[in-house]
Every structure is written in structure tokens, then in C-alpha cells.
Amino acid sequence: MKPTALPAKKAGIIFLWLLAWQAISLSVHNSIILVGPLEVVRALWVQAAMADFWKTIALSFGKISLGFLLAFGSGILAGGAAWRFPLLKDLLEPLISLIKSVPVASFVILALIWVGSENLSVFIAFLVVFPIIYINTIAGFMSTDPKLLEMARVFRMQGKKKLLYIYRPALRPYLISGCRVALGMGWKSGVAAEVIGVPSHSIGEKLYMAKIYLSTADLFAWTLVIIVISALFEKFFLWLLSLAQEV
Amino acid sequence: MELKVNQLSKSFGTLNVFTQLNLSLHSGQVYCLMGSSGSGKTTFFRILLGLEEADSGSMEGLKGQRASAVFQENRLCESFTPVDNITMVIPGRSSRSRKQAKEELLRLLPEEALSRPVSTLSGGMKRRVAIVRALSIPCDMILMDEPFTGLDENTKRTVIQYIKKKTRGKLVIISTHQEEDVALLNGTLINL
Fold first, then answer.
1. ipTM value of the model?
2. B69: pLDDT confidence band, cut at 50, 70 and 90?
3. Looking at the domain assignment, is residue A77 inside a domain?
4. What residues make up the domain containing A198?
5. What angle do CA A95, A99, A102 make, to 5 degrees?
6. How many domains does chain A have?
7. What percent of chain A has pLDDT over 90?
């Protein structure tokens, strides 16, 4: 198959599904139960014309991204420290297991009491992303080639150079796969937290309003916004990580 | 430096690698370690480098001495260029190290190979990078575990000249399976 045929095939498949979706929505003929793609685009168009739409996206994006970035940085630092000092790893293990097993909804309600609704998504995105990055960082460090570490010992390589040339390449695939999972999870749980906490000017608030007013078109439109922003942020962040490898 | 190996023994479980090895080695000399596979050449190198402990015996003259090595496997960072691989082991600032690394590599490798990731180089080229790396750091003792593996005859002779030039005044121990290498290196034969 020609390389250009692949995107065309993909677009064709997506078009077929959109067509099926439109056909089903027409046959259901009830805009509360199901709306078609054309109505979703129309709802999105109406929303995009309002200044509040962009403010909502910017605030939600900023808060969830901040939570992700804080978790990314501290997850690497804590993972690195836990790998270096096994006692710290043992000490953190129950805490990480707890964060992983407690349902996000429980944390959201607890966080509502602790930090209030305005910064709720920062906290929840952090809480969901941190263990993923922490665990992947430890796994990455542990995957370092022991033969290269012996080489570094014989050549008395400086710590900074060891980190740059030996640990960084070992860590990179683990961080990339961790980020792929964490980015999606961070966005989903961040928005879910906003739906529960309903902070003003947030995507979660808009989804909540869509539920209150039974506006399925708005619900679909905002869901589309979440998917697009999440995908763009993932692409941008993974591109940044690939740049870090080349430095 | 003078290195004295006294009654050195090493075994792995029931397998005796060598027993009561005695050697007296001096700076400025090249020693060629020969022996069949499994005779303990690599293990001896690992003990000298401090990567393995002997079961019994002692070594004198190693304290405070800095060692360098060509490992049996190349042990290069494959995603980085040959220049990076040399720069990473040279102490100090990278900008000065890079210039030094490039100059040294050009003695054994074509210029086009210097900016490619090591993973794209041939086996012989990788071996030469490992040799240049071992000879690029300040040291008193150089251990080379079968350094000529994968090199054709002409390249091997060029490499031997390079080794001779760069190791003057140092203690050099090279393991090899080729008896002719002893003569080419003006070395002293040690049978293990």
C-alpha cells in the first residue's frame, strides 16, 4: 500500500463512523438522548464565539497542566531518590499503594475540604500522575545496563556525565510510556474533579451545566474539546521529551 | 608502578578459574596474557579493576593507581557518537574534551564516523572507539581484554602502533589468543 493511501483510508473509516453516528441520531430523533456530529459542531461553534469559552479552556488547561508538571518533576525526583535510597522506597511504598488504590472520587471529596474547588484539578491531576511517574522512574533507573555502570566506575565518570550519558537514555523510554498513560489519566481525572467540585470557569463546570440543562450537544462539544486539548498537550510534551534526549 | 600479585586464587562455585597466581609487573612494559577460553583472563582483569574480589591472595602496588580498560565487550553508549563516548570519560569541561576526543579518534577512524551514533558503526569501528576511549584518560595501568577482536590485519597494525605510542611508560596488560601479537607489541608473554 502506498504511504499516502494510509491517511486516506483512515479518513475514510472516520467518515463512515461519523455517517453512522449521524444516521443513528436522526433515527433516534431525540436531542436529549443522542445528538449527531453536525449538532455537536454547531454547539461548538456557538460556544467558541463566546469569550468565556476560551477563558474556560485556558483555566482548566492551566490547572490540569500545572498538576501534571508538578507531578512529573516531583515524581522523577522522588523516584530517583527512592531508587538511590532503598529505605526511602520502602517508606514511600505504602503511600504510593494507597494513592493508587483509593478511588479518585474519594480524593476529590477530601481535596474539596482541604484545598477548595478552585485548585481541585491541580491537586487531583498531581495525585493521579505522581505514582505513574514515580514508578516508571524507578523502573527506568533499574533498567540501566550494569555493564555500562561498571565502565563508568572504572573510568571514574563524573556524576553529571553519568546521569546525562548512562541514566538518561535508560530512563527515557520508561518516562515516555509513563507520560503517555499519565497525560490521559491526568486529564480525565482533572476534569472529573471539576465536575464534582464545579469551580467557576472550568470545563467541568460546563459539563455539569450541560447535565443540569440536559444539553447533550454541549456535553459532546466540551468532550471533544477535552479530547483535542489532551491530544495536543500529549504531542507537545512528548516532543519536548524527545528534545531533551538530543541535548 | 610495580604490581605484585601474590598467591591469587579465584573460583566460581566448584570451578577453579586460577589458583595461586604469582606475577610481578612493571611500568613501561607490555604484558600479553594468553590462555584458552575460560582460563581466567577476564576474571583477572576484573579483579585488577576492583570489579571482582579474589578468594585469596593479595596484590601490592595498586593503591592510588588509576586504571583504564578496554572491556571484552565494547561497553559504549550506543545512542551517542564516538566523540560523546570519549568526552564522557575525560574529566573536566566538555568543550575542551570534545576537541581532544576528535583529534584522538581521527587517528583510527574516518571523519564521517565521528558524528554518527555508535549503534550505526561496524564492529571493528566500535572496537577502535573503545580503544581510543581507554587511551584518552590519564592513568597508570591499562588493561585490554582481547582488543583486536573484529579488526582486519592492516587496521590491527595501525591500532598496535597507536597503542604503543599512547602507553609509553605505563603498565599495559593485553589478553590475546594470537601469539604473533606478543611480537608485534614487543610484549612479555604470560601464560594463564
1. 0.92
2. very high
3. yes
4. 50-246
5. 125
6. 1
7. 80
B40, B44, B47, B53: CA torsion to nearest 10: 40
- Domains, in order of start, for chain B: 2-66+139-191 (3.40.50.300)
- Subunit contact B75:A161, Cβ cutoff 8 A: no
pLDDT tens-digit readout, B70-124:
999 999 999 999 999 999 999 877 778 898 899 999 999 999 999 999 999 999 9
Return the CA Rg of chain A: 22
Q: Does A185 reside within a domain?
A: yes
A147, B73: Cβ pair inside 8 Å?
Answer: yes
Measured CA to CA, the distance from residue B18 to residue B29 in angstroms comes to 23
Shortest distance, CA B181 to any CA of chain A (angstroms): 25
* A154 contacts on B by Cβ (under 8 Å): 49, 51, 67-69
Contact B91 A165 (CB under 8 A): no
A143 domain residue, yes or no: yes
Quick: pLDDT tens for A8-52: 899 999 999 999 999 999 999 888 899 999 999 999 999 899 989
Please check whether residue B69 touches A, CB under 8 A. yes
What residues contact A6, with CB distance under 8 A and at least 6 apart? none
B91 contact residues in A (CB cutoff 8 A): 156, 158
Asked if the structure places residue A157 within a domain, the reply is yes
The runs of H, that is alpha helices, within A85-167 are 86-101, 104-115, 120-142, 146-154, 159-162
Chain A residues within an 8 Å CB radius of B133: 155
The mean pLDDT of B129-150, rounded to a whole number, is 95
Grid cell 612493571 — which residue? B26
**CATH number for the domain that contains residue A210:** 1.10.3720.10
Rounded to an integer, the average pLDDT of A207-236 is 92
- Rounded to an integer, the average pLDDT of B179-183 is 91
